[in-house]
Fold each of these.
Amino acid sequence: MAATSELSASLEDYLEAIYHLVKEKQAARVKDIAERLHVKAASVTGALRALSERELVNYTPYEIVTFTRSGEAAALDVVRRHSALKDFFVKILLVDEASADSAACAMEHSVTRPLLERFVHFTQFVEDCPRAGTKWVRGFSYYCDHDSKQDNCEKCMRTNLDEVIQKKANKGAQAMTEQQLGSLKPGQKAKIVRVALADAASRRLVEMGMTVGTMVEVIKVAPLGDPVEIKLRGYHLSVRKKEAEGIYVEQAML
Amino acid sequence: MAATSELSASLEDYLEAIYHLVKEKQAARVKDIAERLHVKAASVTGALRALSERELVNYTPYEIVTFTRSGEAAALDVVRRHSALKDFFVKILLVDEASADSAACAMEHSVTRPLLERFVHFTQFVEDCPRAGTKWVRGFSYYCDHDSKQDNCEKCMRTNLDEVIQKKANKGAQAMTEQQLGSLKPGQKAKIVRVALADAASRRLVEMGMTVGTMVEVIKVAPLGDPVEIKLRGYHLSVRKKEAEGIYVEQAML
DNA sequence: TTGACAAGTTAGGCGCGGCTAATTAACTTT
DNA sequence: AAAGTTAATTAGCCGCGCCTAACTTGTCAA
Ligand SMILES: [Mn+2]
Ligand SMILES: [Mn+2]
Ligand SMILES: [Mn+2]
Ligand SMILES: [Mn+2]
């Protein structure tokens, strides 16, 4: 019954597809999975049987498909790998969205956990470190076209450094009071200081790394504030309004 | 006859293994290929048939295996992808050699050409740009352990910048005369200014990107100067002494 | 109520890439 | 030269993941 064997790349893609379909529409229909993965319906049925044998989805013929506990966790894991790699490709390597997406989906299956962590950390490093910052990486574009114009690089470096010092000087003025995650606007970063949620609701979030001390960035807020899309530890995550209200943060200075 | 279909990850690994065995020992024996890939001998025979059908190796039962023209090119391509990814993992993500190696071998099959180019360029960018340089990336290590100690980052940035300016001031003093590739010592970088080789000998090198204007770095030189291991365009390459004598370079300043 | 039709499943087939076991070829020894 | 040893090949099997074709099931409109 258990079955903890490694998932094949193919099955991981099925999990991923189901995850996204459940999120977009309410349920994951066989036909939609098939379309998404460019595969015939019969193949989907086979995959569902395989996932069901591994107890990752609850599946009986003709009935609706749902994730099991471990199934949802496994799906989240794939989605995270995909999104972390894509982020790296887009933000650091400056690859266009579409290419980054397909590349991420191809490589997500062979990247190990420690290596992924490195990718995530590196992306964060470049974003956070004053010498770097995503702005700096744009110099990479220039570098790609011309051959290593060092003068230009150097000038850019100085400008960047000055900006950082400027910002730092102003930081004392900023408020550092606790506020709800939902009150942040897109682009703002903050650190989690308290999580007050029902057990059931918080499980998923904790699994995604929503713990005290973690830095989060709000990516976008849907029309009525539900859901809020945030990024933490390099991964994207959708948080329902209710949940966002139970998460208290403190804004970073920089 | 033709058969230009995409190579499977498995067949690419066989090509890679054969390539390295031919380079290390003179020939690639079935048993050695099997050992290297953790596979049984019977599987190797099957793979050799498949490669032979695609005209990538010359193979008749019980006889020695050699690459065809296109086979060697295909093998080189895999080896390049492997080495470029590994380089990125080691130099930028600061992963240990062994992990980098296995990760590279896992991902080399799913990375597209344009994305690989990005990896290569980015690694070069970090190495060449004065604001960065491999030395800088070591700050990443520190960043991984502590959470974004920005003060430290900033200090490091200043130091680095000063060093660059220092070096730059001295550059006028350096000689810029043409010399043979073989005369460089490990660690030195130079730009190719002239290639004087027999057609047959130069084909392989040109395929690897050994063209006028390209930057090369000498990695190591074997006891008697043969072969010379160099890196160009982010890839590693072994050059025979004879060949190295026909390649003229000019040292870079920085 | 009852077709008609779309969605889903089952059955069976195929290519790939491993494997084992049995066979054959190529070398070594005696 | 014959026997023994190691390397390589063949034959045949299996699991995976896709496919097509034929079938069930569910739904909705006449
Ligand atoms: Mn994928
Ligand atoms: Mn994916
Ligand atoms: Mn490989
Ligand atoms: Mn490899």
Amino acid sequence: MAKDQHNPARYTITAALPYTNGPIHIGHLAGVYVPADIYARYLRLTGNDVAFICGSDEHGVAISMKAKKEGVTPKEIIDKYDGIIRKSFEEFGITFNNYSRTSRDIHHKTTSDFFKKLYEQGDFIEKTTEQLYDSEAKQFLADRFVVGTCPKCGHEEAYGDQCENCGSTLNATDLINPKSTISNAVPTLKETKHWFLPLDRHEDFLKEWILESHKSDWKPNVYGQCKSWIDDGLKPRAVTRDLDWGIPVPVEGGEGKVLYVWFDAPIGYISSTKEWAEREGKDWEPYWKSEDTKMVHFIGKDNIVFHCIIFPAILKAHGGYILPDNVPANEFLNLEGNKLSTSKNWAVWLHEYLQEFPDMQDVLRYTLTANAPETKDNDFTWKDFQARNNNELVAIFGNFINRVVVLTNKYYEGVIPNPSEFSKVGDFGYAKKIPDNYIKFPRTLPFSGSWPKINEFSTFGQQVPSR
RNA sequence: GGCGAGGUAGCUCAGCUGGUUAGAGCGUCGGAUUCAUAAUCCGGAGGUCGGGGGAUCGUGCCCCCCUCUCGCUACCA
């Protein structure tokens, strides 16, 4: 079936899977979940078939490491945060059709099958390389889990990937007196074999698909980032890791290794869709395989390469899958002038907000939408939060609605009068534009420029009775 | 360091392929009003469009240099 951009048969909307090493904060909401939810709600209200898909991302070395440090199992970590995240989304009112977990069987099987199929088709290459190894903990180390003295500035607690003191990018092997953050052992180099996805093989299709067909409809930050990757020349990317936490590599020689979390996470969108379809008695396949489906990935700007280059390459290699029509990556939200940070505990956590501001979901939704970081990083301040609530939601919009009710009761005995009387009131040019301004806006991405209209609209409404 | 995206009124943002006095919402100042006055309506003031060069009859928008922020550059996600 031919794809009709303006009238797709159904929509598959995904929101980045939250990583379960911490709760959800306002930055996640502003950049991903609130815009995705607005889009999904709008499409449903206008009669579209929508699958709004999400779930917890529960694998990866960061969770494994966190568990080790806290002396608990990875399972305990993911259960804890999946619980908090799941509950806070529910209470906040993000209307996912399904919220799954990448630790579930359905996801392990889906991902495993995906890997096997690519493996059998010869879509991977195998390479043996030398990696840093902690012989005490018996574990390979990612660069960030090695600390030592920075060779450039002498800072004694530089990470293997970057020195936070002087900001320079490092290789873990450059550090003076390197040691593992797990056991304090001195890392050694050890050989290991991994499977790589040769992105260079997919360069031609990515070039055409992104650089040519999405030059004008993708956001500049997304397009620019993709172009940068493609122009630099794509390289093979490892899709397996030496780790005991994750989805086991399902082919010969993969013992003791797991799939790279970024290989399995996006496939989580697919398994979550399957889970939903099973529960609802639907067929999941059209949502991922039919050309008349429109798929949109909502993500933060740090995820662009995975959703625009790597995942599409995986889908394309597999065959039979559609690719996203758009990937509206948002920028980041700061809090009172500083970067949000889970590890530094600098954030407004959603579950805490819900406790401290009961029944005030809409206030936060409004503030985060009005202040959405669509083209650049924005700053959330409590002062602004207060001002938007008091001045805009309560004073302008709230008063307008209240006034409509008061006047309707007072002059029309509570019954909405016949609209024909409006013809006496003169210029209604603005009213005629309302459908364009309010009904159509979320059809295009991003949503920028739509929010001030709630105030304009209220002002217009306030003027009417005096005419 | 390399690459990408940003730096437009006090705040949050628009500004199409360069073309009359750079726009909106909120805030601010002044006036009006009553069905909402811990509100609303009307009007005004506020920008050398990050800085410096250049090309052009003419640029916020093009070219060069510099600067600040964030992201990617890594086996963190």
